[in-house]
UniProtKB/TrEMBL annotation, chains A, B:
SUPFAM superfamilies from the UniProt entry: lambda repressor-like DNA-binding domains (SSF47413)
One Pfam family of this chain: HTH_3
Protein's recorded name: Putative transcriptional regulator
SMART domains xref list: HTH_XRE
CDD domains on file: HTH_XRE
Organism for this UniProt entry: Novosphingobium taihuense
Domain HTH cro/C1-type: 5-59
DNA sequence: CGAGGATGTCAAGCGACATTGTCATTGTGA
DNA sequence: TCACAATGACAATGTCGCTTGACATCCTCG
């Protein structure tokens, strides 16, 4: 499951550590999600969506 | 994290077993999600949303 | 009454999510 | 050149999502 986290983060000039802090998860979790190691839990997906002000569907993509 | 699964399912007159089969998960998983024991994974949340033709945000609710 | 469908729940097990801690690599700036 | 931020990665650990299998309860229908 791909996502646009890296792009959305870059648009705001945030580091992975910055994003992790805003989401209240570890930097490693942000990195793992960005690099596709695993998908976030649904609650975390909601926090991400809320943070960027976008629906989940526009951040995470179905497929593969 | 609350959800409207039970209602959406009732509207279509599906049993938990029916829904489980359509989602390709176990009946116990459907039951656990409906009764709030845990939240579905993001991929499963997408499958649920697709099945009901609704955005994830309209099936699952932030809060508690 | 008795059979069967629907629901709720428990246990045991496995893999996925998330953690802390650590290390290597790359790039930028003083 | 040297320090440091940023990123990627690995190990060990703990919890959560999901499974199969089993059992109890409730309801309805013949």
């Amino acid at each position: 499951m791909k996502n646009r986290l890296k792009v959305l983060r870059a648009m705001r000039d945030w580091s992975q550590a910055d994003l992790a802090e805003k989401l209240e998860v570890s930097r490693q979790s942000v990195n793992a999600i960005e690099t596709g190691k695993y998908d976030p839990s649904l609650p975390l997906a909601f926090r991400i969506a809320d943070l960027f002000g976008l629906p989940i569907e526009e951040i995470f993509e179905r497929g593969e």
